[in-house]
Specification:
Oligomer: single chain
Structural class: alpha+beta
Shape: elongated
Number of strands: 12
Distance between the termini: 50 Å
CATH topology of the largest domain: Rhopdopsin 7-helix transmembrane proteins
Order of helices and strands: HEEEEHEHEEEEEHHHHHHHHHEEHHH
Helix content: 40-55%
Largest sheet: 5 strands, antiparallel
Mean pLDDT: 76
Radius of gyration: 34 Å
Number of domains: 2
Strand content: 5-15%
Low-confidence stretches: 1-23, 458-501, 555-566
Length: 566
């Protein structure tokens, strides 16, 4: 089974799953403990929480609540104890702020790191053997919080008392369930813990993004309104590339709106349904794919320098499909069912393919963009050349900004391994959305719908001073004005710029489209210059010819050649 079929099957299964996935209400379903040093440990979650500013007499607005937390041991472990034994296994829940991480485990004297208190450490530090080593915080002696429960007799399970811990200090909080009893190997846990901020159930790192998505939705809505007004106004002159720009704007607006409502639902209910999140990230993956293909197509000159991509179409679509699959898998791993403020290391294996494809796209974009610029320069299309130079500068700036930001992101994460700067971590995610928005604004500005859109798509920019260099007017033997074309050898400057057969074939087709219009334009410009043709008459004839030429180009035969009558 290939990758695409597996992905489709995964999406179908994920969307059809009943109920909701993990959320800020952390749910545990017989989660196994793992052995770490001399302890058995299970991570209960890590989230940034803002301090409760309300009166201590009022109900808590920031808290971590334990509900129906139940521990299960193996039958072998239970049978090793008698039915009447009082305490046959201790389990502790440790809740601490990231700044107090050094107060859990370890030795203050010998440098030995140990989570649980051993006989030797009991003599050195005075800790209780068989329990987690805990030292009081310098800010609050009641922290880290330790909650305990004991197995009784040979029972297979034990329930932790429901309890609510009020958060009075802003910070990154970590919860671990730990057992120091070697007989409890194979321990597992079920139940849930509820983590809440004053503004709702969103984890601290995600909370600012909800407001950010509101801002971005409004920004894209404004762009959509302005672009649509111009699109409707000049709908007769719309180029194919402008249709794709419209689609990208709509997808951006849709994605930002979906993200806001997904976060709003998460914040109010504490539940993050897997199906909804999957649809949101799928829309995002489609938007990112089409946006990159749009930039690549513009760089190739699609809709502006050439009417089609020709043989390159299949290659572009194949790259787009590959990028969509890589982006979809990465986004699913990062967002679906994700609630903790510390992301896992497993996503690294999904980041690498996505990063490689982005690098390949950038290389291809600038390679084709360079060829397009050379082509426009050889044709002396000054208007198009100016547009593409501005586009090139915008792309260069965005690539430089991306590389610089990636460097900052690596530095940010390397210097903050425990996510203590979680309150500003949302900027890492927001930057890429802002950069995409700015680049889209540049594209909208350069290719805004206007009455001259089709002229930019199918005509070259020719100056009056070049008319006599390209052609001359002579008198025929019958006294009529005739035109003698002076051929120019431009092949040396252009042929070397295109090494792909598909691009060369497209150049031939495009030359066939441009040649009749250029000849007519130059001839009429010379006639008007010599006062043999009125300006208004020239304008009317050019418009009529353009309409006929555009009609003829729509009936290209299957081989891509113009009919002989043209």
């Amino acid at each position: 089974m290939d990758l695409s079929v597996r992905l489709v099957a995964l999406l179908v299964v994920v969307v059809l799953l009943p109920g909701g996935g993990e959320a800020s209400i952390h749910t545990y379903s017989r989660e196994p403990f793992r052995e770490v040093g001399n302890a058995f440990l299970l991570s209960g979650g890590s989230e940034g929480i803002v301090a409760d500013g309300a009166d201590l007499a009022a109900p808590a607005s920031s808290f971590i609540k334990f509900t129906n937390v139940t521990f299960w041991r193996t039958p072998e472990s239970a049978e090793s104890h008698t039915k009447m034994a009082h305490s046959t296994g201790l389990i502790q829940a440790i809740l601490f702020e990231a700044a107090d991480r050094d107060n859990i485990g370890g030795s203050a004297y010998g440098g030995q790191r140990s989570i649980c208190c051993t006989p030797d450490l009991a003599k050195l530090e005075g800790c209780k053997q068989g329990q987690v080593i805990r030292r009081p915080s310098s800010d609050d002696p009641d922290w880290p919080i330790v909650l305990e429960t004991h197995f009784s007799g040979n029972h297979l399970s034990v329930k932790l008392d429901d309890e609510e811990v009020r958060i009075t200090k802003t910070g990154m909080y970590n919860l671990f369930f730990i057992s120091c009893d070697p007989k409890l190997r194979g321990l597992s846990m079920s139940g849930k813990t509820i983590w809440r901020n004053p503004g709702g159930y969103l984890p601290g790192r995600m909370a600012p993004l909800m407001k950010f998505y509101v801002f971005m939705s409004l920004a894209y809505l404004l762009v959509m309104v302005i672009w649509s007004s111009q699109y409707i106004r000049f709908w007769r002159d719309i180029m194919p590339i402008q249709n794709w720009i419209t689609l990208v704007i709509a997808l951006d607006l849709f994605e930002m709106t979906l993200w806001y409502f997904e976060y709003l639902n998460f914040n109010s209910s504490g539940v993050r349904p897997i199906g909804i999140t999957t649809w949101v990230v799928t829309v995002g993956a489609i938007r990112k794919t089409i946006s990159r293909l749009l930039i690549l197509s513009i760089s190739m000159g699609y809709g502006v320098v050439r009417p089609t991509l020709g043989g390159l179409t299949s290659k572009v679509l194949l790259l787009g499909l590959t990028y969509f699959l890589a982006s979809e898998l990465l986004d699913i791993a990062e967002n679906v069912g994700t609630i903790n403020d510390i992301s896992g290391k497993a996503r690294l294996f999904l980041v690498l393919p996505d990063a490689f494809l982005d690098a390949f796209l950038i290389l291809w974009i600038f390679t084709t963009l360079s060829r397009t610029l050379e082509k426009l320069q050889a044709r002396r299309s000054s208007v198009k050349l100016d547009i593409y130079r501005k586009f090139t500068n915008a792309l260069a700036v965005s690539v430089i900004a991306s590389v610089a930001w990636i460097g900052y992101e690596v530095y940010f994460k390397a210097t903050d391994p425990f996510s203590e700067r979680w309150q500003s971590a949302w900027i890492i995610t927001a930057f890429w959305d802002v950069l995409a928005f700015v680049l889209l604004l540049v594209i909208c500005y350069l290719w805004a719908p206007s009455q001259s859109s089709q002229r930019y798509a199918y005509s070259g920019e020719v100056a009056d001073d070049d008319d006599e260099e390209a052609q001359s007017l002579t008198k025929g033997t019958d006294g009529n004005v005739g035109m003698v074309k002076i051929d120019k050898d431009r092949s040396g400057g252009v042929s070397n710029a295109f090494s792909l057969e598909d691009e060369a074939e497209e150049d031939k087709r495009e030359s066939a489209l441009l040649h009749p219009f250029l000849v007519l334009y130059k001839t009429m410009a010379m006639l008007q210059k010599r006062k043999l043709l009125q300006k208004e008459e020239m304008k009317d004839r050019l418009q009529d010819f353009c309409a006929e030429l555009m009609q003829e180009t729509r009936i290209l035969n299957q081989d891509g050649n113009l009919p002989e009558e043209i």
